[in-house]
Write a structure and sequence with these properties.
Elements (H helix, E strand, L loop, with lengths): L6 H11 L7 H14 L3 H16 L3 H17 L9 E5 L8 E3 L14 E10 L2 E6 L2 E5 L15 E4 L1 E4 L2 E4 L5 E2 L9 H34 L1
Helix pairs in contact: 1-3, 2-3, 3-4
Length: 222
């Protein structure tokens, strides 16, 4: 590859490699390790740390420790970046490189291929700043957007989905849910409103079907 240390080339190589059947997670780590050791460019540090986290999630302790150091280095290099907290990649349901989900494939409304994992709430500063420990990794989240999480939720077990930002791991905050959270906890007024909207939608659909049927019958007679 020409200009192997060029940040754009690092990104392009990775986007090709992630879909190549003959490139394994270990192969990709070897390439990214060589690149990040020659340069402190954010892209190299970012994708190197992301891959090391994947290995760490599989239970490899050395890679887990290395990932944490790379996260610190990446966050430092991206300190002034306007995109430092944006998750370009997410943790998905596949294996190896296939467990990475590009942000364009993530549907914030749900129905996406993200993997749900469990963790423990370790910090609650305020509704916009909290931490969850997932398999030894620190994951940032916004407690105010989570389900069943309050300032008294320290050490509570939760389910969540997370992604990778230059600044470290970040949860999709609306995916965070306390394991003891039940739909019964939703205020009765909210339930009534939701039920009313569903009923109204069903009535409108039934009316539209009846109208179309009547219109069709009238056209056949004429």
């Amino acid at each position: 590859m020409e200009e192997p240390d060029n940040e754009k080339n690092i990104y392009l190589w990775f986007q090709v490699a992630r879909h190549h059947p003959n490139v394994t997670l270990d192969d990709a780590i070897e390439y990214l390790s060589a690149w990040s050791s020659r340069t402190n460019q954010v892209q190299a540090l970012y994708y190197h740390y992301v891959l090391m986290v994947l290995k760490g999630m599989e239970g490899y302790e050395f890679e887990k420790s290395r990932a944490k150091r790379l996260i610190e280095a990446c966050a430092k290099e991206a300190e002034k970046s306007p995109y430092k907290t944006f998750c370009f990649e997410w943790f998905g349901v596949g294996e190896g490189l296939q467990s990475l989900v590009h942000h364009r494939m993530v549907d914030e409304a749900g129905g996406n291929p993200l993997r749900t994992v469990r963790g423990i709430v370790t910090e609650y500063k305020h509704p916009g700043n909290g931490k969850i420990e997932v398999n030894g990794f620190e994951v940032f989240f916004k407690p105010g957007q989570a389900k069943g999480i309050t300032k008294d939720s320290l050490n509570k077990e939760v389910e969540l989905q997370f992604g990778f930002s230059y600044d470290g791991l970040r949860a999709k905050s609306k995916s965070v849910r306390a394991l003891d959270y039940l739909e019964e906890n939703v205020p009765a007024d909210d339930k009534k409103t939701a039920h009313k909207k569903t009923q109204q939608a069903q009535e409108e659909t039934a009316f539209e079907l009846a109208y179309k049927k009547a219109s069709s019958s009238q056209k056949e007679r004429t």
